Amino acid sequence: MEKERQLLVVFPHPDDEAFGVSGTIASHIENGTPVTYACLTLGEMGRNMGNPPFTDRENLPKIRKEELKEAASALGIQDLRMLGFRDKTVEFEDDDKLTDLMSRLIEELNPSLVITFYPGYSVHPDHEATGAAVVRAVEKLPAAVRPKLHCVAFSNNCLEELGEPDILNNISAVAKKKLAAIQAHRSQTEQMFNGIEEKLEKQDPQVMKWITNERFWNYKF
Q: Can you give the residue range of the structural domain that contains 61?
């Protein structure tokens, strides 16, 4: 994975970074690339409260904020931006407001690579709105100076309509950091990933394939 001038990662929820891109983030950091993670919400409308539950609806935002900070630390992210939007409302924000926010981030950081969700192929309305805002901000730039835009897609029709991923990163070297980031989001992942560490240690083929391969599509302007 080549060193970038600056990587900007933009997702709407704590844990969005953990599942599909945390190995790529950790790899870039190990290569000396500065990384900024802009997270729009605190995921306060998440359904999970731990298993057994260890928090409630009122305190979940505080829990998820700390989990996000812990996950960022596990990956080595030093520039974590929490943008203060409300979970499950990003789709209702003014398009121009979101676009301007993304444009300001890009202008400030001058990234050579931006990672976000692929609008139309990322299922959740907050995912879609976030990815669309990033796309609009990048599209406003002259083509010659646009950063690379690598997008995460996982809808049922993404392979059929987008084709095979343009980028497939094998992140085996940082798999433990990725697992640590996933586990940091304890309220959301503890039950789902119970026993995964043991399977990883035993090189379980299904777990290894899921953990060690991260796929991205170049956005087609």
A: 7-218
- Residue 62 · residue 85 · CB < 8 Å: no
Taking CA atoms, 212 is separated from 24, 75, 170, in Å, by 10, 15, 5
Number of domains making up the chain: 1
pTM of the model: 0.93
Angstrom distance (rounded) from CA 109 to CA 136: 17
- Nearest Cα neighbor of 71 from 11, 117, 24, 14 is 14
- In the chain, which residue ranges form alpha helices assigned H by DSSP? 16-20, 22-30, 60-75, 95-109, 125-139, 158-162, 175-184, 186-189, 196-201, 205-212
Q: How do residues 121-136 score in pLDDT, each as one tens digit?
A: 999 999 999 999 999 9
| CA neighbor of 55 nearest in space, from 66, 69, 71, 70 | 66
- Beta bridge pairs of residue 7: 35, 113
Q: Assess if residue 2 is contained within a domain.
A: no
Query: What distance, in Å, lies between the first and last C-alpha atoms of the chain?
Result: 24
